[in-house]
Amino acid sequence: xxxxxxxxxxxxxxxxxxxxxxxxxxxxxxxxxxxxxxxxxxxxxxxxxxxxxxxxxxxxxxxxxxxxxxxxxxxxxxxxxxxxxxxxxxxxxxxxxxxxxxxxxxxxxxxxxxxxxxxxxxxxxxxxxxxxxxxxxxxxxxxxxxxxxxxxxxxxxxxxxxxxxxxxxxxxxxxxxxxxxxxxxxxxxxxxxxxxxxxxxxxxxxxxxxxxxxxxxxxxxxxxxxxxxxxxxxxxxxxxxxxxxxxxxxxxxxxxxxxxxxxxxxxxxxxxxxxxxxxxxxxxxxxxxxxxxxxxxxxxxxxxxxxxxxxxxxxxxxxxxxxxxxxxxxx
Length: 331
Fold this sequence. Notes:
Elements: H1 10-22, E1 28-32, H2 39-51, H3 61-68, E2 74-77, H4 94-104, E3 114-118, H5 128-137, E4 143-149, H6 157-160, E5 164-167, H7 173-182, H8 187-196, H9 201-206, H10 209-229, H11 231-241, H12 245-266, H13 280-288, H14 292-310, H15 315-326
Parallel strand pairs: 1-4, 1-5, 2-3, 3-4
């Protein structure tokens, strides 16, 4: 059945299957949790359970149409670039919400229900939630709307108050490892990526293991080089990477997780808690040579750099400040 593919979310699946069994399906849901833990997969399973004559058999024409996005009673909305452009900030714009409203007003064409999934709903433009509110206040009959969010505060309380919130959590390590192994990864790689993705196997599956390891080596080598060669190396890497916001975000995440592991090693924590468990000896040696204050300051620097990027501070400036704090010890 459709929910068989959902791993590690028993509470969420229980809420939805009980609603289906009792016939008390809410008109709107908010699936809230971190990316990569199965929110969209569960939403698709719920849609199949509602629209499929066999309650989500995964084999019938209805299920295949939903998977292909061509079922007349199903619609998936996701952030897109501005019309006519191939770059920019992907957003859910008011035009997409208007289209949802128009389709929701129609009677079901093939099934007993209509299902609309709004993926990454926190990326709506400022005016879109307000336009959406009327549909949530006066939902058409036999219509289910599913908003997929990372946090409840991504949308106004007036929108969330009209939805049943369903929580999704990161998977336990063994659950994530088993899922990744079922997709063809060897145990060592699966465990490394399960920890690196912090229990979000969807993100781990999107990673190329070799590329992830290469990115980690680059991040650590940059710190070592700037620490050894000083400002010359700092500005070299600033010139090389300063225009690539995406790569700088990846470096920040790597440094954040490395300092997180340093803190764990400094506290003599269980080695199984380390993200970079394959580098446990190096982490222990590095942590022994650092003070608590230095490690905590490194974590704070990573957090502040990430916040700066979210406020559209120049990636180059963010990288320069970050490296000066981590590798050069500047205030």
